[in-house]
Amino acid sequence: MALKLLLIVGLVFLVGRAATADASAVMENLVETLEDLVGEEERSMDEQQGLADNLVQEEARGSDGWTHWFDRDNPLPTADNEALCEHRIENPGEICRHPSGIQARVKGSNTPATQTSEYFVKFSPLDGLVCRDAHQLDGRCEDYEVRYWCP
Q1: Which UniProt keywords apply (predicted)?
Q2: Whole-model pTM above 0.85?
Q3: Which residues pair with 149 in a beta bridge?
Q4: Are residues 86 and 24 in the same domain?
């Protein structure tokens, strides 16, 4: 988003610097670029909404498409980081390209993360789970494990 804003500011600057004969052409290019950016942003928002609508956090669909459980670290002194990108690095080829759901539970139990009182900085199939100690009432995160739904 910041890159797009920078592009827009740069284009506006160029319009201001262009000679009046070229200003019309530059302005047309600016309008086309802005229309393209708005279209991309709308498509991105639609895609994100679609992923959110398909988010599976409970085991309603059975277990055929679920990966195994991943636990990449014990809680650090500041957080428990079960990020999708880290799971992919540490487990190449074990997670599909576009997971559409995520489940998380307290490691060593069947207690779903959604039934704890903890706040998660990230909890989505595209990001994984990130819990920061500073955001918790008791000052620490549980140790979580996650798995992903791969359609």
Answers
A1: Glycoprotein, Secreted, Signal
A2: no
A3: 66, 101
A4: no
